[in-house]
C-alpha cells in the first residue's frame, strides 16, 4: 500500500506542477518563435519534471511535522488508503487500455502484407533508402489512413487503396511524414506519454501537456517534410485530399496516423501555409535550459510551500474529548501545589501540621481562529502521593508522685508503592 506521506506529496505537488506548466507556457510565448521540434522537447521535459516532483520533494521529519500542522485540510490516515485504492483502480483500467492498444497494433501487423520497396516508384524508393531505422512497408485493408507502428519492429502501414489511387507526389509526402515519426523515435516518446497520463490521470497539468505534445509531435514531422520538399502548398493539398477521402476520426492510441482530429489537422494546415513559421528543424538548446531552471526552482521550493492536504493519525491520551462550536480551546499546564496535612493527637494536644507537595495538571484556555470547531479538552488531574508516610504514637506514664508524662513519637516510613504508581488526590488523602 502507498504510504500516506507519499499520497500527500502526490496531491500537494499538483499546484506546483500547474505553476511550472504556466511558467513554461509564458516562456514559450516570450521567446522568439520556436520550431515545433523545440516546443515538443520543452513540453516533454516539463512532463518529466512534473512526474519527478513527488519523488524529489522529500521533507525531513521536522519539516514534515510543521507542514502537517500548517496544512489547510488534515485528513485521517485511513483516507490515504481509500485514495490509494481508487488511484490503483483507475490507473489499472487506463493501463489495461494501453495493453489493448498494443495488442491491436500487434494484430494489425500480423494481418498486413509486406511490400517490397523495390516494386515502388523510384521516387518512393529513394525516401525509403534514406531512413535511419530499418522500417518495413506494409499494406492492409483494416486501416483508414497511413500510420507508423513503432517499437522493436517499426513499420509504416498504409491502406491498400493508397498505393493504387493516390498520386505519387501525395503518397510521397505522406510516407515522409510517417517516416519522420520513426526517425524522431515518436513511438517510444508517445508510449511514455501515455503511461504517464495513465498514472497521473488526476493531474490537470498532465492532461494539458498531453494535448500540447500530440499537436507538436505532428507539426514537428510536418517541419521535417517541408524541409525536404520546400513545397508547403503541395503538402497541405495532400493532407486535405486524404482527409476528404477517408474523413477524420480517432485511431489507435499508440499509432501515429497521418491525420488526427479535425481541429488538429486544421491547425497543422494553417501552420504549414504560414510563411512566417521557423524554417529550422533542430532543437534550440537554451529553451531546454529554461525548463531545467524552472523545474529546479520548483523542486527546491516544494518543502517551503504550504501543504493543502495532509494525512495524520490523531492520538489523544485524554479522559474526555468533546466537540463544541466555540472560539476557545484548552491546553494542559503542570502546576505544583503545596498542601498541609493535620495530624491531631489525643484531646488536649496541639495538632501537628505536615506539609506536602502535590503535582497536578491544570487546564488553561487559549483563543483560536473564529469559525473553526476546535477540540475542547478536559484533561485528567494528576497527583503525586507523598514519598513517605508518618506514624504517630502517643504514650502516657506516671511517676511516683502521680504526675503524668506524655511521650509523642513520629516515624517517617517510605511509601515505596507511591514511588511506583501515581495515585488520585482522593486516594492519596486516604493513604495519609
Question: Your description of this structure?
Answer:
The chain has 432 residues and is α+β, with helices and mostly antiparallel strands. The chain has two domains: 4-309, no CATH class; 320-431, no CATH class. 50% of the residues lie in helices and 20% in strands. It is built from 14 helices and 13 strands. The chain has helices at 4-30, 36-56, 61-70, 77-111, 122-129, 162-165, 168-183, 186-199, 204-229, 232-246, 262-273, 285-301, 416-420, 425-431, and strands at 73-75, 113-115, 136-140, 147-149, 155-159, 256-257, 309-311, 320-323, 328-343, 352-367, 375-378, 388-398, 404-414. The strands form five sheets. A five-stranded mixed beta sheet has the order 2-3-5-4-6, sandwiched between helices. A two-stranded parallel sheet has the order 1-7. A hairpin with a 5-residue loop joins strand 12 and strand 13 (404-414). Helix 4 packs antiparallel against helix 8.
Features:
elongated, alpha+beta, 14 helices, 5-stranded mixed β-sheet, single chain, 432 residues, disordered C terminus
SSE blueprint:
Elements (H helix, E strand, L loop, with lengths): L3 H27 L5 H21 L4 H10 L2 E3 L1 H35 L1 E3 L6 H8 L6 E5 L6 E3 L5 E5 L2 H4 L2 H16 L2 H14 L4 H26 L2 H15 L9 E2 L4 H12 L11 H17 L7 E3 L8 E4 L4 E16 L8 E16 L7 E4 L9 E11 L5 E11 L1 H5 L4 H7 L1
Parallel strand pairs: 1-7, 3-5
Antiparallel strand pairs: 2-3, 4-5, 4-6, 8-11, 9-10, 12-13
Amino acid at each position: 500500500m502507498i504510504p500516506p506521506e507519499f499520497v500527500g506529496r502526490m496531491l500537494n505537488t499538483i499546484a506546483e506542477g500547474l505553476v511550472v506548466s504556466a511558467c513554461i507556457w509564458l516562456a514559450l510565448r516570450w521567446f522568439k518563435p520556436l520550431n515545433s521540434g523545440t516546443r515538443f522537447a520543452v513540453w516533454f521535459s516539463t512532463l518529466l519534471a512534473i512526474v519527478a516532483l513527488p519523488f524529489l520533494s522529500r521533507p525531513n521529519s521536522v519539516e514534515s511535522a510543521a507542514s502537517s500542522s500548517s496544512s489547510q485540510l488534515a485528513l485521517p490516515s485511513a483516507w490515504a488508503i481509500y485514495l490509494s485504492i481508487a488511484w490503483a483502480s483507475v490507473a489499472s483500467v487506463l493501463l489495461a487500455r494501453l495493453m489493448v492498444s498494443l495488442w491491436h497494433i500487434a494484430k494489425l501487423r500480423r494481418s498486413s502484407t509486406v511490400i517490397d520497396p523495390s516494386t515502388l516508384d523510384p521516387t518512393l524508393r529513394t525516401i525509403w533508402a534514406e531512413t535511419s531505422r530499418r522500417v518495413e512497408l506494409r499494406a492492409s485493408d483494416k486501416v483508414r489512413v497511413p500510420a507508423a507502428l513503432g517499437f522493436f519492429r517499426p513499420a509504416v502501414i498504409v491502406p491498400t487503396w493508397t498505393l493504387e489511387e493516390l498520386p505519387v507526389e501525395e503518397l510521397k509526402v505522406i510516407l515522409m511524414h510517417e517516416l519522420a515519426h520513426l526517425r524522431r523515435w515518436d513511438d517510444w516518446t508517445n508510449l511514455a506519454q501515455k503511461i504517464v497520463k495513465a498514472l497521473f490521470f488526476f493531474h490537470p497539468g498532465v492532461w494539458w501537456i498531453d494535448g500540447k505534445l500530440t499537436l507538436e509531435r505532428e507539426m514537428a514531422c510536418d517541419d521535417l517534410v517541408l524541409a525536404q520538399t520546400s513545397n508547403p502548398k503541395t503538402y497541405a493539398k495532400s493532407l486535405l485530399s486524404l482527409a476528404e477521402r477517408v474523413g477524420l476520426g480517432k485511431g489507435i492510441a499508440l499509432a501515429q496516423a497521418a491525420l488526427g482530429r479535425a481541429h488538429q489537422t486544421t491547425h497543422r494546415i494553417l501552420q504549414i501555409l504560414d510563411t512566417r513559421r521557423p524554417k529550422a528543424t533542430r532543437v534550440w538548446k537554451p529553451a531546454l535550459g529554461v525548463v531545467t531552471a524552472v523545474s529546479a526552482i520548483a523542486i527546491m521550493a516544494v518543502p517551503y510551500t504550504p501543504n493543502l492536504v495532509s494525512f495524520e493519525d490523531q492520538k489523544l491520551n485524554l479522559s474526555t474529548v468533546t466537540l463544541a462550536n466555540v472560539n476557545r480551546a484548552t491546553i494542559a499546564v503542570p502546576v505544583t501545589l503545596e498542601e498541609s496535612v493535620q495530624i491531631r493527637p489525643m484531646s488536649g494536644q496541639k495538632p501537628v501540621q505536615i506539609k506536602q507537595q502535590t503535582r497536578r495538571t491544570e487546564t488553561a484556555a487559549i483563543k483560536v481562529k473564529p469559525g473553526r470547531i476546535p477540540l475542547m479538552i478536559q484533561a485528567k488531574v494528576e497527583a503525586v502521593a507523598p514519598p513517605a508516610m508518618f506514624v504517630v504514637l502517643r504514650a502516657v506514664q506516671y511517676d511516683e508522685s502521680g504526675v503524668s508524662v506524655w511521650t509523642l513519637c513520629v516515624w517517617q516510613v517510605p511509601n515505596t508503592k507511591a514511588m511506583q504508581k501515581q495515585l488520585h488526590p482522593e486516594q492519596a488523602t486516604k493513604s495519609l
